[in-house]
Amino acid sequence: SHPVALVFHLLFRTGAIAIYLFGKLFTERNTFIFIICVLLLSFDFWTVKNVTGRLLVGLRWWNDIQPDGTNAWVFESRDPSRPVNPMDSRIFWISLYATLVIWLFLAFFTIFEPTWLIIVAIAITLNMANVVGYTQCDKDAKKKWATGFAARAATNPNMFGRLFSAGIGRFFG
């Protein structure tokens, strides 16, 4: 469990939404609200991408620019034999998707007040990047695990027999 990582994971996300929604109650200066929101959104993006994703779900992603100018996505994942804390993982994934949904919902209200459109656009862009990055990273990790499991099973024919007998033994035992 990583309670400090969870706090910061949720703090920056909820802080940006709270300042966006309730900033007018504390100050009339839109520029100040804009700067605080963008800073919180930037802190959130960096923290999720580089710290909490690695600690809470064992995943990390980045985009590498090759010498020929093309982009290559790079995904890191934890060893599948080291499971993550289920509560950490659940909070990470729920907050990742819920925050994007909240910002998309708030985007509809910027039609009536377009001065806030840039904050919502930045929020959606940064949150969407993390959602896409981590979703692809999770798929890549599952594919690598399945491929590794299949390779180990092919080189060790007794593996399935042991797994099967362990399963039957647990069922009847």
TrEMBL record:
Subcellular location: Golgi apparatus membrane; Membrane
Entry-linked Pfam families: DUF846
Residue spans crossing the bilayer: 6-23, 91-109, 116-134
UniProt entry keywords in alphabetical sequence: Golgi apparatus, Membrane, Transmembrane, Transmembrane helix
Its biological purpose: Golgi membrane protein involved in vesicular trafficking.
Family affiliation: Belongs to the TVP23 family.
Designated name of the protein: Golgi apparatus membrane protein TVP23
Lineage start: Eukaryota, Fungi, Fungi incertae sedis, Mucoromycota, Glomeromycotina
GO biological process: protein secretion; vesicle-mediated transport
Membrane topology: Multi-pass membrane protein
Cellular component annotations (GO), alphabetically ordered: Golgi membrane
